[in-house]
Amino acid sequence: MTAAEEREPLVRLERDGAIALVTIDHPPVNALSHAVRSALASMLQEVQANGGFAAAVIACAGRTFVAGADIREFDQPLRTPHLSEICDAIEASAKPIVVAVHGTALGGGCEIALAAHGRVLAEGAVLGLPEVKLGLIPGAGGTQRLPRLIEAHLALDLITSGRHLPAVRARELGLADDVVSAADLLNKAKALALALRSRGLRRASASPVTVSDRGGFAASAAKAAARARGQMSIAAAVEAIAGTLDASFEDGLRRERELFLQLRGSDQSKALRHLFFAERDAGRVEGLRGVAPRAVSTVGVVGAGTMGAGIAGACLAAKFQVRIVDLDTSALGRGRERARRILERETASGRLPPEEAAALLSTLVATNDMTALSKADFVIEAVFEDYDLKAGLLARLAKIAKPSAVLATNTSYLDVNGLAAACGRPRDVIGLHFFAPPETMKLAELVRARDSAPDAVATGLQLARRLGKIPVVVEVCDGFLGNRIFAMYRREMEYALEDGALPEEIDAAMEAHGFAMGPFAVADLSGLDIAWARRKRLAATRAPGERYVGVADELCEAGRFGRKAGAGWYAYRNGQREPDPFVTALVEKHSASRGIVRRPVSMEEIQRRARAAIVNEAAKVLAEGIAARPSDIDVAFVHGYGYPSWRGGPLYEADRVGLDRLLEDAERLHAANGIGFEPAGLLVELVDEGLGFADWPKLQRP
Ligand code: 3HC
To answer: Looking at ligand 1, which residue's alpha carbon is closest to its atom 47?
Structure first.
């Protein structure tokens, strides 16, 4: 029991006439620790035993309803009472039990709600079973009760995606009895509990599974399984839910429990739990304790291209006032349309009422006039990645923007120190590197320049979080944390190409490793022209003697700029990528011109080389202080580069693989490639001291 748990009663039982009001009060998110479960179980027994109570309401104090089991306890042995027993007791109660849900009823919290006889939700509340994201499946009846309360294929989709279900959608599906204002929540829940006394109780376990379309269910199951890309929890969730179609509730529950327990001890779940806490740690930034962010209500965006319009749309959806500026009027039109589509998506998911979306869109100011940004509290420039262009623009913005405004540059590589100094307001400047498409990609690299004021950084962090991003704070270097490491990975994969592999073999190997896409498919998606322009710009500064693969340059010279051009590393037919003999011939020609005798490169070799290149450069990024901690690199790679989340990120995985083995691989790469692949001093040090990246804090000497 923690000190806080010893001090406060975690669950209170109060009488309100014939109603027992059971309030869980375990900040910050009312997680179901062992102590909370024990207290809840005994309160529920008291409700049953006390003849003065005719019905009960379960509610929560603080900011949210129960957000699930206590994730920190998953590393400990199991202890009774299990949540599944509590849920069974709630459902079996002869006295009506209603939940009053505000905030997020997630995981075990949602399972309590599903076991109850009635559910009243506050406006803005969400229900969700996100266990798959932790490498688990719901373990207290969620996979069995939800398909009995809503259509089985919808239950399957919610559980295998871990998606939140907004209150309005829950009501449409019949999952919520009522959606009311926060002020009315308790009274409505009490009224429902009393009313249920005479209505007969609906117990999910006694209802048949709702499956009107077995074919549709099978199709959703197949889709979920394909999305899993090696993640066991998704396949297990499909199995548990599919089992409900033909098995009894009790048998289904037994199978759910078995699968839950297997997953609880699995490496994948441990890796995903690491990532959960890593995402939260990424927000802890040295030097910001007690620093108040500046107030932001109006965001200005310069540039209405793909990035600018996507950022503007995301800001609108987060309910900021938005002004977007572009000299090209037709780009502004396209930008407005893109913002409309982003809001439409929010509406379709139930996160934003249609009338509110329309009202937000009507507030969007799209103009050619840069002085419209004089009222913005936060300005993000998202123009073409060109140093001089951005420097000139920031200098103009520095004059136009009000003194308290933060000026953010959305750059993926450029020197933010230089840009900040040149604009004359270095304290107000930060980098904010969004990933395409910015309205959906979770990662935002927040670049802290040499002179960035702490409150400018705090403001950037707050804004990124409000946009639903996971911000990772990084220092300035070419490519920052993500693109710098990714560049070494890409280089190594090009060397593998020259040695004997083909793009489709490399992509297949990395996709088999669990990456959303292999490096060549990613390059085609991003467009080869941008990287080409950058290579040409940097050609003069490339180290003499650096191993350089010119295949991508030749593809560009042939006009093959990737997916948008219908050809790149692949040919594209009907939107599908296909290996292209043209590329094969080009690659073979390059190997021959280097005197390389092409040889088969196995999947395992490709994966090992990729891993060594990533980890070696990551160790350099850490040692140079570009990233604050190893787990920030894990978070960035998972949320910005499609690294398989169930591997926990590259550095978490590296500790599992063994750093001595990785160092050997890194040394092999150095011997083969030379410049740029020198083994990282930090990697050598960790191996010498028998430590892993998890021991990084021990190396932080004062
Ligand atoms: N267990 C333990 N700690 C938790 C927790 C949980 N389930 N959920 C959140 N926390 C902690 C966070 O680590 C954080 O701690 P910190 O301040 O020390 O960093 C603190 O609570 C606040 O969390 P956030 O910073 O994430 O706060 P937000 O307001 O941004 O988000 C939230 C709140 C939406 C509830 C988010 O925390 C969340 O998604 N939590 C996880 C929910 C989840 O996955 N539940 C399922 C658990 S598994 C389960 O229930 C199994 C069951 O089927 C048997």
So the answer is: 68
